[in-house]
Design goal:
The structure is a homodimer. Chain A is of the alpha+beta class. The first copy, chain A, is about 20% helix and about 40% strand.
Amino acid sequence: MSDKTRIRRVPERAVSERGTIDAILDEGLVCHAAYVTQDRPVVIPTLYVRDGDRVLIHGSNTMGLARAVRAGSPLSVAVTHMDGIVVARSAFNSSANYRSVVIHGHGRILDKGEKATAFDLIVEKLIPGRLADLRPSTASEISQTSIIELMLDEVSAKVRSGGPEDEPEDLDEEVWAGVVPMKTVVGEPIPDPDLRPGIPVPDYLRPYRR
Amino acid sequence: MSDKTRIRRVPERAVSERGTIDAILDEGLVCHAAYVTQDRPVVIPTLYVRDGDRVLIHGSNTMGLARAVRAGSPLSVAVTHMDGIVVARSAFNSSANYRSVVIHGHGRILDKGEKATAFDLIVEKLIPGRLADLRPSTASEISQTSIIELMLDEVSAKVRSGGPEDEPEDLDEEVWAGVVPMKTVVGEPIPDPDLRPGIPVPDYLRPYRR
């Protein structure tokens, strides 16, 4: 991951186009959210969903995050996908293919009236199609959840793709070069031991079945 | 990802044991490093390696990170692995299985004499076995790289594993429940278009061949 600009190729680039940004955000499940408390940064992983021009960040394991937002801390939130290992002809040009988005801004804690819908969006992002099968969340459950809204006002992406960008003089090196692609895959659903007999894996989990 | 403590099961837990922490760090390639500049947090993805009691963080695309460390900003660095989607019987208990480590502290910019070795460690982490095939890095390449050392003094892990932890009254819901496992896989190496004929994929990339 380097930001050197090359004459030969420029495989890493900054992207401000919303279509690309939205696609990167929509592909991810986990973001890394950073806030400041007592002049120190804290970064934590948590679940999120993009909803139009905002992201909704799940805050229940991250009371520190919600507290910091309430105290006025700005946020920095990153979503990153690793797409491959760039096997270059030098250590210096060895790199990774990736897509990442970083959002900056002040979050807003959703109020009681907004939270139920936002929480549903997060669950539906995690398991598309799931909500229709579930009982509604209770008021107590909603109250135990905190959700932070962050607008996509100050947002940018970085993308590196393609093969190694070697120095011209390294092209004669007697060494293999290329890319090892990486991706995240899902396996066969594993039933809960307490699952009542006769309940099949639902259709909306079928994309996950190989 | 919730930190509720349950009577029935406690699938999410904080871990301070170094063996677990080291294993999580050693499995990852990308960390999310957060720093503070002008009272604002900034989080960025970058490559790293654990080396004993420290992590070495690659800083070349992240001049802001190196600058912030030089200016005295503390750091917060997270490494997260998503292991699965927890398909619970309620939206509230829907969750993710994951392992994450967060490190806090003040980084140190490695000096010229230390950088070459540290840089090699990062490359060898990215592509184990690779260094033996590569020419040594030049002084100019080393000088263009910045590497930040962060000691594992203030470090902790969180791990969530296992099935859904549903409310007892939800176990009668007529709905599938369980876990959809996730993992990162690597594909078949893709040769660089400029690769000279007759150079085979090296042995150390063989684990990546299915």
